[in-house]
Amino acid sequence: MIAKRRGTIYNHSAMKRSRNYDLGNDGLWFLTLHLALPTALAQAVNVLYAIVDRMFIGHIAGYGDIALAGVGIAAPITTLISSFAVLIGMGGAPIMAMREGHGEHEKAERILSTSFYLILLFSALLTPVFLIFRDPILMAFGASEATIPYASEYLGWYVLGTPFALLASGLNSFVINQGESKKGMVSVLIGAALNIILDPVFIFVLGMGVKGAAIATVISQLASALVVISVLLSDKTRIRLRFHSFDRGIVLKIITFGLSPFIIIGTDSALMIVLNSVLQRYGGPGRGDILITCSTIIQSYHLLVMNPLGGITAGCQGLVSFNYGAGSSERVKGSIRRVQIIATAYTVLMFALTLVGSRLFASFFSPDEAIQRLAARYMIIFECMIIPLSFQYTNVDMMTALGQVRFSLPLSLERKVVFFLSTLILPALLQADAAFFAEPICDLIAGILSSFIMWKELPRILRRREQGGFRI
Which of the residues 67, 132, 250, 416 has the least number of beta carbons within 10 Å of its own beta carbon? Predict the structure, then answer.
């Protein structure tokens, strides 16, 4: 496909991928499936970092349930730290793809280099903050005297691996947005497989308990980071990491593009912290820790549902960004439709699995049948509106891929505000476990609102691109 702009001709067929992935010419069903499915699988495997830790911890003899609650308190904070990788990765990678689609290869490489430096900078800032102040933060966010030793031990060791976690996750976006979703999947698979092997060795064989789970995670994230960096340094990679000088002019654009997905992940973490705090406050002594244990199991399942959904939509951002940069409106619209079909089909499947398998899933985390019953019941409530949520995920990520932060950011914030208010109000009016209804309420509203905005604004966005040329 040839695109003209101000008398210059760009040959977009140059941006061909391994296995003949040509984002400008290949069939859209072929591309969406080959980009979405490996990325979704990679995200599902990535969840195993958290889930496997919690499964083994929950079965530690004598104190597994209370240790699981402690790790559940720490978990939103670890996710909050990881959200900075999303800020840079999902901010810089779509811009890189747009530049490449528009024929600006050197600018695409400079964006990758600058993003790499930003990840290192955030790692250097975040590590000492959360290491030094972890105990006051954990107590403020729902820890009790019983859970704080386990929460503090896990978070302290995890934070030491912050650079590896951010590099592994953040740079993977730059691999995926070049159409190399399978290579991105391999890097995650290697880390997750290593974590599954190391967890029982460190926790049980070496008797390291919660600390062992955190150390296993850090080592596994280091392995994933090394794989991703090696891919980006390879001669076989189209847009390589060449360590160009830091480009301050692009930093604001990267952060602006990444702000919406960063808010999705970051505020999800913050809201889980609020949820834990509310459960502890209204649950009272003893029952508060039980509810947080149930919440930890539910959040583990929620990650298993939502991360692959995010993989489906994020994995196809490069396809949409490339064709938007190339000025191919019909391919943009066709790509978005296909992403939504895949996302909806996935959430229908996961909702059905939730109905029949929630009790079984809970049993993986705790041998206590009372906790299993409670967690299963709350899990069905929590996930009952994930089908409408698939529309919100698709619409927000596709708006981000088009550079329309003015839409994606408010849509992200709207869902968080509804969740926050529901989490605070429902337990105060009813009882502690009413907080679990906050998720389906905000999912339904977000799905409807985001779909209306996409239906109304997408034709205008593409018409402006056709009439006004390319600019970000």
Answer: 132
